[in-house]
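Hi! If you just cloned this repository, the fastest way to understand the data is to look at a raw example. We've pasted two of them here, unedited. The first protein comes first, obviously.
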Amino acid sequence: MKVNQWLPGLNEMNKLVISIVVFFLIPFVSHAGDDPPNKPIVNVTLLQSSTSWDGGSFNYPEGKPQITVSTITVPEGVSLAMHCHPVPLAGMVVKGTLEVTTANGESRIFEEGEAVIEVFNTWHYGKGLSGDTELFVVYMGAEGMPVTVLMDGDPEQAKLCRTTAD
């Protein structure tokens, strides 16, 4: 079939331009259905544990499960309020450095790229140590249950967290 038959009414210059474009597109179109490169899929376990970073145990709350995925940014030099998590959570320091200190004075520093299973049901606070510290956090909670409770917040919610003497 000639170009004139399927492109009637075009002048010779337009037909030439279309022919050149089609000629250069053929190599790309011919590879569209090829298999992707033969690269392996990589799965790296960052952290696996049955205890939190302070050696404490954790359990999953009763009720209908609800997973919450969050990012948290803690500016350098800023301390979070004393709080606890009545649900298990795991996270990763995406950027910066974070120091976490429990109410009984135990502390640990987490660096960029480090994964952590956070303390469970334990009063603690975090402080950004270098630049804006960015955290990626996954809470394993239950519908209707808070993932974070502030020590100076709702007294009923505070009952979900153990006292420092426990």
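Ok, and the second one:
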Amino acid sequence: MKGSSLAVLIPAWNEEATIADVVSKIREVGLYDVIVINDASTDQTADRAAVAGARVLSLPVNLGAWGATQTGIRFALKKGYRQVITMDADGQHLSSAIPYLLAPIVAGEADTVIGSCTERGSHARKIAWRFFRGMTGLGIEDLTSGFRAYDLPAMKILASKEATLLEYQDIGVLLLLMHSGMRIQETKVPMLHRISGSSKIFSSWFKVAEYLLLNLILCASHFMKVKSHFMKVKSYWYVSKKGTL
């Protein structure tokens, strides 16, 4: 694979403690097109990323992890990249695992690959995963992993206006990809614990409640789409059968 066809995207908000090390380790494995989307950080995230060798896109306002990631995907499309890897800026994701995410895409077996590490999840998070898997029909164990690989068709879908309406980068993104016919795979990868800071989603009970509520709305929307499709198929079957009588 040509290096210029792949970009590594890292959304970052106030990650000055880890971002330089994350960028450096990605470049050490031969991936030099590292793009850090600085999500209106108030610390030295942008400067440290740039010194480490990343291209930095600085947002004027905080868009959240998904908004920053989508900005990176749109930029990658504009620059002609055909695959992207998304990674967290906190040091949890290992650059040595990137080839495992890319392999199914290179082999033409998947459009999206999720780097999965269920061992990192707390008991409460695993319950949430199980609940949303049942609600959505998504056969993904680690629904909240931000360590992902997307091919060109998936990138185009995620750069669309429809994807802009999403708040988080996990369930909503996966549902949109699934409804669009994208092939989604999951592969086990090792992950580290956060070096500093805390999860932006699970930082408080209010944030957890907000996350659950928004994803429940997404699940309800998913059910409405499935029901609408079922009713169309049923109506077509009824009309066709009536026509043969």
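That's it. A detail worth noticing about the second one: Strands lie at 6-12, 34-38, 55-58, 83-86, 112-116, 148-151, 184-188.
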